[in-house]
Amino acid sequence: MKIVVLSTSVYRCPPLGYGGAEAFAWYLVKGLNRKGHEVTLIAPPQSRTPENGKLLHIPCTYGEVDLDAEYKAWEWYKHEFINADYIIDLSLNHIPSEWMWLEYPEEHWKYVNVLNGTVAFAPRIGPKKFVVGSYSWKHRLINGLSDFADTPWENVFGRHIAYPANDEDVLDVIYWCVDTDMYAYHEDAGVDKEDFILWFARPTPYKGWKQAIEIAKRNDVKLVLMAGIGNKEHEENFKLLKAEADKNGFEVVVNPTHEQKIEIYQKAKALLYPVQYNECFGLVVVEAMSCGTPVIASSLGAMPELIDDKTGFVCRTDEDYDKAIELIDSIKPHDCRKSAVNRFSIDVCVENYLKLYNKLKKEG
Asked: For 186-343, which CATH class?
């Protein structure tokens, strides 16, 4: 089968060390290749060419969202979309989906739009055909709620989204995935756990780095803060993070390579992720679990769907976080790894996308 995977125009695919949609797009490419499909990846320069397929470049805006870059994906490569059997669109505005509906509506049945948060623009023309990565995400989408609704950041970013969906607009809920072969269980890698907990995300305040510092201080534990920086906003936020970390004597790691990131995951006693908004999925959570590392997270967004009592703790109060740190050694690395492989591996995710294609083909 010929499959087009359209990544974002923001970063290369896969990203160098940190990235959400771009990493997920590459995992889909990798898994579809393994299944024997011919994959055309449309992505920025320096992206990786699929083993069984080809890479087509689109302009890269390096940290900024650009609608024109997405339009060029359609303008330059529309024949690839038309000739494909299946199109998986992870772009941030889904402009090619709109144009395909306008110019070739009879071919649009094979097109799915994978959303990257409820605040991302959805197609405004033609059928929505959304795939989302968690049930929490679906709930907010069809109720017109932003990722910041009912969180401390609602007054800053707003409660409602511009384009809410109907229930029938959501084709499926398919959990995102990680490369569980690359994110290895620490004992298999010969790495021993060390006496620190890890926070890892973009340095955006609503990712919870301030709360992680307060929790670590209150419990007198060593904290490593690992940050991915991809644009000017991240750089400004990182200055605040670094100043606070330095003041409290906590180590900071910036833009780690995949190798560095994996080693730190493997060594950490836990990933501390007190995220302050409704995270739609949370790749870092599943990456950590795949490395045999339990997760202590807030109860917002998809966190309760990803974490259970064998893989970590979902927390609502300061007392919950303190108790979780006290009990973290009771979580077995093997159980974290097993959950990640069984629920969030590439093969599981790809199989669900292929099942969706068969459903669309039958209906279309």
From this structure: alpha beta
pTM of the model: 0.96
CATH class of residue range 2-177+345-363: alpha beta
Q: Are 82 and 107 in contact (CB under 8 A)?
A: yes
List, in order, residues 6 or more apart from 38 with CB less than 8 Å away.
1, 2, 3, 52, 53
Question: CA 171 from chain center: how many Å?
Answer: 19
Q: Are 297 and 276 in contact (CB under 8 A)?
A: no
Q: Rounded to an integer, what distance in angstroms lies between the CA atom of residue 352 and that of residue 108?
A: 20
Q: In a structure prediction context, what are the per-residue pLDDT tens digits for the chain, which is 364 residues long?
A: 999 999 999 999 998 866 789 999 999 999 999 999 999 999 999 999 999 999 999 999 777 778 899 999 999 999 999 999 999 999 999 999 999 999 999 999 999 999 988 766 677 888 989 999 999 999 999 999 999 999 999 999 999 998 889 999 999 999 999 999 999 986 766 778 999 999 999 999 999 999 999 999 999 999 999 999 988 999 999 999 999 999 999 999 999 988 899 999 999 999 999 999 999 999 999 999 999 999 999 999 999 999 999 999 999 999 999 999 999 999 999 999 999 999 999 999 999 999 999 999 999 7
Cβ neighbours of residue 182 under 8 Å, at least 6 residues apart? 258, 262
Cα first-last separation, the chain: 17
Please tell me if the domain spanning 2-177+345-363 has the same topology as the one spanning 186-343: yes
Contacts of 360 (CB under 8 A, 6+ apart): 109, 110, 112, 171
Dist CA 99 CA 116 (whole Å): 20
CA–CA gap between residue 287 and residue 242 (Å, rounded) = 24
Q: Enumerate the domain spans of the chain.
A: 2-177+345-363, 186-343
Q: Are 261 and 293 in contact (CB under 8 A)?
A: no
Tokens of 16: 């160098």
List % helix, strand, coil for the chain (3-state, nearest 5).
45, 15, 40
